[in-house]
Amino acid sequence: VYQTVGNFFIGVAPIISGIGALFLSLYYLLPNSFKVFAGYLEAGVMTKSLDLTFFQGLVSASLVLIRSIFTLSNVLTPNFWIFLLIAMGVSSHMALS
After folding, report:
1. Which of 38, 66, 80, 93 is the most buried (most CB within 10 A)?
2. Residue 14, CA distances (Å) to 6, 40, 42, 60 in order
3. What's the pLDDT tens digit per position in 47-91?
4. In terms of DSSP H, where are the helices of the chain?
């Protein structure tokens, strides 16, 4: 039993650490976008049950995040480009091991 549980966490670790790395880089490199996204989630848009409203909230939260990241003021800063490189590198290597 312990080996099965350990293998599960070993397999899922790249996904969890990749998501953590993406959020940390968003927090440090684009703090305004992180605040917009966190404020949107704290507003109670997401429901706790897995129904249609949950997926609608997930899509709308993703759109809010994309719109707040890809603004003209962000594109003109070097932090945006560093974040973009980190995000592409991390997300392209996130796979179950």
Report:
1. 80
2. 14, 27, 27, 26
3. 677 778 878 888 888 899 999 999 999 999 999 999 999 999 999
4. 2-29, 31-42, 52-69, 72-75, 78-92
> Which residue type does 5 have?
V
C-beta neighbour count of 26 within 10 angstroms:
20
Domain ranges of the chain: 2-92
In whole angstroms, give the CA distance from residue 26 to residue 57. Answer: 20
| pTM greater than the 0.70 cutoff | yes
**Distance of alpha carbon 26 from alpha carbon 83, whole angstroms:** 7
Mean pLDDT in residue range 6-35: 93
